[in-house]
Design goal:
Layout (H helix, E strand, L loop, with lengths): L3 E4 L9 E6 L6 E4 L4 H7 L18 E5 L1 E4 L8 H5 L2 E2 L4 E3 L3 E4 L1
Parallel strand pairs: 1-5, 2-8
Antiparallel strand pairs: 2-3, 4-6, 4-8, 5-7
The protein binds FE2/S2 (inorganic) cluster.
The site of FE2/S2 (inorganic) cluster has 13 residues, from loops.
Amino acid sequence: MLGKITTVPDAPTNSTTFQVQLDSQPASFPASADQTVLLSALAAGHALASSCRNGVCRTCICRLHSGRVTYRMEWPGLSAEEKAEGWFLPCVAYPASDLVVAK
Ligand code: FES
């Protein structure tokens, strides 16, 4: 089942921490709800590809196998179809649940 992607402009910040599992890695890593998935991955030592880090270039695009993310920007560089298929941009996506991610 693909994860649900929700856009929530001006979402409130909080300190909830979720677990993110990259399908290429044996262990999960913590990801705070008020930090992007990319920054949490980098802090945990996972070298996810990135370039612009503002949701434009799509270098970081990944797919959710499960979980939900939110965006604080109105429309990250994804089509509605891509969002529906589970694609997301970790550089501008914030975890809203535990995530399982395909790189
Ligand atoms: S690094 Fe450019 S869209 Fe994520």
